[in-house]
Amino acid sequence: MKLFVAFLLMLAAQAGHTAYPERPITLIVAYPPGGGTDLIARALAPYVEKNLGGAKIVIVNRAGAGGEVGFAALAAAPADGYTIGFVNTPPLLTIPIERPAQFTWQRFDYIGNIIDDPCNFSVHSDTNVKNLAELAAYAKANPGAVTVGTTGIGSDDHLAMLKFERAAGVKMRHIPFKGSAEVRAAILGKQIMVAAINIGEALQYQKGGTPLRQLGQMSEKRSTLAPNVPTFKEQGFNVVMASLRGMAAPKGLPPAVREQLVGALQKAVADPEFQTKAAAYFAPLRYLAPSAYATELKEGEAEFKKLWQTMPWTDK
Q1: Helices (H) and strands (E) in the chain, counts
Q2: Could you give phi then psi for residue 21, rounded to 5 degrees?
Q3: Which of 67, 102, 58, 63 has its CA nearest to residue 244?
Q4: pLDDT tens readout for residues 171-190
Q5: Is 138 exposed, middle or buried (0-12, 13-18, 19+ CB in 10 A)?
Q6: Average pLDDT of the segment spanning 26-48
């Protein structure tokens, strides 16, 4: 009789807990279609779906305010595992430092980091500028004439521009866009002189037919993706900047759901087929498990708070 009662209780418990996922999952990308984050999200989604038992992932682009619109939407969503999203540094960390925001990095449960992409300066291939020294010389001779397209105020691209201005002793003009796809269109149309985008994105766009010349990459050493592109440090400018792109969910995920998502992402990033696709997109993979990812974000926030004290990045 006791066994029968226990069996009934087990059935009741199972009936009260539906399997996850039982409906489509929304994946928020805080930037427009065609940018680096959007492309890697669409390449990765089928592999996460496979590792969640065939669940459907629907990608929704919520662009605006340098990522703030999408990050805020993700933070405000129910913590049930049916809304997840990409979060990008530095904007995830810098936006709440520079102004009141509806999110902080602590408002999320982290599923894992996927990309670590160094920043880069690119120009149209028709431009006479061939390297950073020539860019600095032109900017000194023509104060404010160098226009730099970025993915928004406080983005890695914008901070990179400010760091270069300081290192080179020049002044350039900031042109913010909603995402790197718009920066690409602007450099293609020669509406801006410099595209400040990640090296992986620059290589993608170049492969796709955009006539670009990379002036330098902002990594400590040359990326294997671009072994022929010198670093800023090699050219005498101490500028290092990169963007992490990872996956997160609203804070408070049920532990079992979080475990499923973390496992599905880890397997997806390790899938050789996905890695081949990522390489084709020039996406530099760097998987970080949730705890390591959170530690890096905490350290990054401290660094950007110090930077804010010496070099506030809001446009005047």
Answers
A1: 11, 10
A2: -90, 145
A3: 67
A4: 999 999 988 899 999 999 99
A5: middle
A6: 95
Beta strands in 34-107 (DSSP E): 57-61, 83-88
Element (H, E) at 25: strand 25-29
Question: What is the C-alpha separation between 181 and 305, in angstroms, rounded?
Answer: 29
CA 297 to chain centre: 13
At residue 59's C-alpha, the angle toward residues 57 and 63, to 5°, is 155
Find, among 213, 185, 178, 186, the residue nearest to 199 by Cα. Answer: 213
Please state, in angstroms and rounded to a whole number, the distance separating the CA atoms of residues 251 and 107. Answer: 5
Residues paired with residue 244 on neighbouring β-strands, in sequence order:
116
The sign of the CA dihedral 122, 128, 131, 134 is negative
pLDDT per residue as tens digits for the range 49-71:
999 999 999 999 999 988 999 99
Identify the pLDDT of residue 315: 59
Angle (deg, nearest 10), helices 91-98 and 290-310 = 40
pLDDT digits (tens, 9 = 90+) for 280-302: 999 999 999 999 999 999 999 99
Cα 31 to Cα 68: distance, rounded to the nearest angstrom: 10
- Residue 150 neighbours by CB distance under 10 Å: 27
Closest listed residue to residue 70, CA positions, set 244, 285, 247, 205: 247
Q: Which residues pair with 88 in a beta bridge?
A: 245
DSSP calls for 99-122: S--S--GGGEEEEEEEEEEEEEEE
Q: What is the pLDDT of residues 196-253, one digit of tens each?
A: 999 998 998 999 999 999 999 999 999 888 999 999 999 999 999 999 999 999 999 9
Residue whose pair of structure tokens reads 């592109």 in the numeric block: 229
Q: What does the alpha-carbon distance between residue 97 and residue 203 come to, in Å, rounded to a whole number?
A: 31
What domains lie within the chain, and their CATH numbers?
A: 23-116+243-310 (3.40.190.150), 118-241 (3.40.190.10)
User: Residue 191 — φ and ψ, nearest 5°?
Assistant: -85, -20
pTM above 0.90, yes or no: no
Cis? peptide before 90, omega within 30° of 0: yes
